[in-house]
From TrEMBL:
Organism: candidate division TA06 bacterium
Listed transmembrane segments: none
Official protein name in the record: Peptidase M28 domain-containing protein
One GO term of the biological process aspect: proteolysis
Any one Pfam family match given in the protein's UniProt record, by short name: Peptidase_M28
UniProt lineage: Bacteria, Bacteria division TA06
SUPFAM superfamilies per UniProt: Zn-dependent exopeptidases
Domain Peptidase M28: 189-364
Any one GO molecular-function label of the UniProt entry: metalloexopeptidase activity
InterPro entries reported for this sequence: M28_fam (IPR045175), Peptidase_M28 (IPR007484)
Amino acid sequence: MKITNEAERLLKRISHPRMIGTEGIKKAKEEITEFYNENNIPYEIETFECYGYDDGEGKIALDGKSIKARPVGNQNPFTITGELLFIDNYKNIKNITYDIKGKILLATGGLTVEDFRYMYEHGVAGYIIISPPEKDFITSTTRQVLVRDNVIIPGLIVKHDDAIRILRYNGRKIKISGNNKIKKVKGENIVITVEGRNNTDPEILVFGHYDTVYESPGATDNGGGTAIVAALAKKYFKNPPKRGIKFIHFSGEEFGLLGSKSFVNSHKEELKNYKFTINVDVAGDIFGYNMSRIIGGDDIFYLSKLIASNLGIVVNTTKDIYSSDSMPFALEGIPSINIARWGGRSSFNAHTINDKSKWIGKTGLEPLLLFTDEVLNFTSNSPLFPVERKVPEDLMQKVKDYFKKSGYSGKEKQQIK
């Protein structure tokens, strides 16, 4: 299909590191907007400020031996010495009964803002995150609210096999260092408006983030979603549906949904017009499985299953939250369908240097492109709007709990001081 070929070309073109605040994301913005310029499609750039960082190197010193590490993002240079304490997994941090003050922690897993504040309040000197087996360095970034409040603990990321060596020093003094540097940066959302034939305000949002974590080419996460959104924006701009649509390429998703939060907080009055959102985040693996995650009612759940069956595409459909740009809209009561493809080599290596386009292909892009297209076609052209603008109470509670853990209330208008 021609539309799939276009999407694949754009995906491969933008498959390079594009972390917010870097030259890479400036290049990606130019590549995406060039696609729209070539097709005479107007767009707007909406900006916001946030914290980013200049990347550096990290290391762990063990009795004169040095192990390479990656500094956690959004930190300033540090060198500290402390006793190593292995705690298994960071989700256990609040259940630990022994003293963690002055310790350098070693564990698997990630940290919520609540967990981080707990560690800070209890005097943790530093922490080391263990990457999963068979993966390169994963990436972790200190959340914006913690940087804003100067609640920062020096942190490093190590490879799994190196962590086994480090574990031998449990209970002994080690030295860790890193030389990242925090800076203020600008995020840019790319917004395309397609006016509907009924001349009403846009009622549907279709989006996917185009930024990546540090060093990752981001082929599946989220070059695939970016390419699908762009291909559909072109199709619907050339052939407008009954209802208006906004297509958005968000920046800063990997730093905590910053672009979508900014859009929601900058368009509060406009939000009442939006009835439904479609989010494409992770797509393209040649081998894998398709999924749709519904943050909404049974009507959207069964619509997803019906469309997939009608197309002859297997899509694993569930009702649950999805940690992506649909979440700030869900907090405002706007339902979503989150569309993704997982299970292949590129998505397995998401958030690492190995999320590469060489493991991406039409067989991975086309099913999601067709499925997303049909969901959009049905909702934008039905005589009556086919789904209810509602997030059920059980899912809304999950949304609120999700943001509580990240320290976000939905009312913040500025990401930085």
